Amino acid sequence: MKTKQVERKGTYLRAFRAAFPYTVPVLTGYLFIGMAFGVMIQEKGYNFLWAMLMSLVIYAGSGQYLAVNFFAPGVSLLNVIFMEFMVNIRHIFYGLSLLERFSKMGKKRLYMIFSLTDETYSLFFVTKVPKDVKEEQFLFAIAVLDQSYWIIGSGIGALLGNVLPFSTEGIDFAMTALFVVIMVEQWMEKQNRPSVVIGLVCGLVCRLVFGADNFILPTMICVMVILLSCKKIFDKMIPEDGKEGGEPECQ
């Protein structure tokens, strides 16, 4: 029994070691973005423990940035629920695309659903699982590492904000900057470029049609419909042996 436990710990350790290099871009981004969140929540009068606790049990990224604005009297609970739902509604589409992979992960699938941020979702799709590591352990390691970066960054930011107070105006743009970095990383892999183009085109069209305040949900729906309709095409474009697939037409 002990031998099996030791072997299992060894496989998880190997998975974390294999996953860490792939999460370095998220590490650098989450530390600074988490610090920005920590500074913002500290300005509302909450210390670093509250910042880290919020990042541990909520872990919503942009949703946490938005939530800071609700730490004021007179804000209705229904308004908070609606705004947070609209900001994080994209995660519904993320989850739909990962149902099959998560169904094989047993009890860990609950945490995997909880930990599904934009950056973690991107890594799940652009990162190849090493041959000597189990997929479920590798994905779990990515999720845990990413959240740990966010928690640590939140705590550091709240501490620094208390010691070195400064203006937080424009600091939430760090989240947008990280999204741009992730998009560029995906563009560097040739098989990912069609999905990037689809996202950009759908976003631009919906922005023109629905306006700046209402284009996110229509964009996600359009992207999901297109990607699901052409799923077989994109599956064939993912290289299994270092070579790209053909270029079949969409049916």
UniProtKB/TrEMBL annotation:
<feature type="transmembrane region" description="Helical">
    <location>
        <begin position="48"/>
        <end position="68"/>
    </location>
</feature>
<feature type="transmembrane region" description="Helical">
    <location>
        <begin position="138"/>
        <end position="164"/>
    </location>
</feature>
<dbReference type="GO" id="GO:0005886">
    <property type="term" value="C:plasma membrane"/>
</dbReference>
<feature type="transmembrane region" description="Helical">
    <location>
        <begin position="216"/>
        <end position="234"/>
    </location>
</feature>
<feature type="transmembrane region" description="Helical">
    <location>
        <begin position="20"/>
        <end position="41"/>
    </location>
</feature>
<dbReference type="Pfam" id="PF03591">
    <property type="entry name" value="AzlC"/>
</dbReference>
<keyword id="KW-0472">Membrane</keyword>
<keyword id="KW-0813">Transport</keyword>
<dbReference type="GO" id="GO:1903785">
    <property type="term" value="P:L-valine transmembrane transport"/>
</dbReference>
<protein>
    <submittedName>
        <fullName>AzlC family protein</fullName>
    </submittedName>
</protein>
<keyword id="KW-0812">Transmembrane</keyword>
<dbReference type="InterPro" id="IPR011606">
    <property type="entry name" value="Brnchd-chn_aa_trnsp_permease"/>
</dbReference>
<keyword id="KW-1003">Cell membrane</keyword>
<comment type="similarity">
    <text>Belongs to the AzlC family.</text>
</comment>
<keyword id="KW-1133">Transmembrane helix</keyword>
